[in-house]
Write a structure and sequence with these properties.
This protein has eleven helices and 14 strands. The chain is α+β, with helices and mostly antiparallel strands. The protein has three domains: about 45 residues, Uridine Diphospho-n-acetylenolpyruvylglucosamine Reductase, domain 2 (2-Layer Sandwich); about 110 residues, 2-Layer Sandwich (Uridine Diphospho-n-acetylenolpyruvylglucosamine Reductase, domain 3); about 90 residues, 2-Layer Sandwich (Enolase-like, domain 1), CATH 3.30.390.50. A five-stranded antiparallel beta sheet has the order 4-5-10-6-7. Strands 11-12-13-14 form a four-stranded antiparallel beta sheet, sandwiched between helices.
Length: about 280
Amino acid sequence: MKPNNFNYVRAESVDHVLSCLAEHGENARILAGGQSLIAMMNFRLVEPAYLIDISGLDELKEIKTNGNSVEISAAVTQAKVIAAADVNEHLSLLVDALPNVGHFQTRAKGTFCGSIAHSDPSSEQPLCFAILGGEAVLKSNRGERVLAASEFQTGMLATAREDDELLTSVRLPKQNPSAGHAFEEITRRQGDFAIVAIAVIADGENIRIGVGGVAGKPEVRDWDGLADSDIDDALNALAWELGDNEDIHASAKYRRQMVRRVGRRVIEEARKCRS
C-alpha cells in the first residue's frame, strides 16, 4: 500500500516547526528518520495531513554534555549515537543496547529521539530511556517543558507530548562509572523488535532493572540490598506485575518465564561488571 495524500513541509528552523505545529499540530506528524512513521503511513495506520521534515536541521543534530547528563537532539541518528565519544564514555548501557536496533542501514536513518517519541514498548531505546532515568525536552510556541521518562512514556505508542509540541532532545544522566550494567533481549531474528528485553544497572547494593516488550511501556524497578536468595522471588513477582501481554510472537506465560530466566542472567552479569 501507499500513504494517503499529504502536504510535505521541509522545516527551515525549529521556530518554523513550532509554527507549523501550532497551526496544524493535530493533523501533523514529525519526520526525522521515518523508519517507523513511513511504514505506518504506507499501511494507513496514520494519515497525517502535514508531514514536517526536520532531518535537515543542523541545530537538531547535536550530541552534547551538559553537566551530569548527555543531551541527544531530535535529528541525531542511531548510528551517530553509537559512534559518539560522549555516549561511549558516559552511557555504556546505551552503546550495548543500540546494536540490537534494526540493522546498520536502518540505524543510519532512524533517530534516537524518533524512537522515544514513537514509544513502542518493544523497542530498545524507550527501555534505555526509562532505566537511565532520562528526560524529554518538549518545545512549543507556548514555551518549554521537561518531563521525566516515567511521565513522558504513558503507554503503547503513547506519550505525554501535546499536539503542538516538538520533542527537541532527550537528556540522559551519565552512568556511575563504578556501576555494572548488562542488556539482553529475546527476538525472533537479529534486528527484530524484542519479545522480551531486559536491562540492569547494578550500583553498589542497588539493582535497577528495566523490562521492555512485556507491558504497554517499559517498566523499571529498584531493588535495594536484595539478597541473592531473594532474586528469583523478586523476578517472579515482577513477571506477574507486568500483566498478561499475549500476541502472535509469544504467550504471556512465555514472557513471564523469560523475565524470570533472562532477568536472573542479566542481573548476575551486571553484578560481575561492577568496579
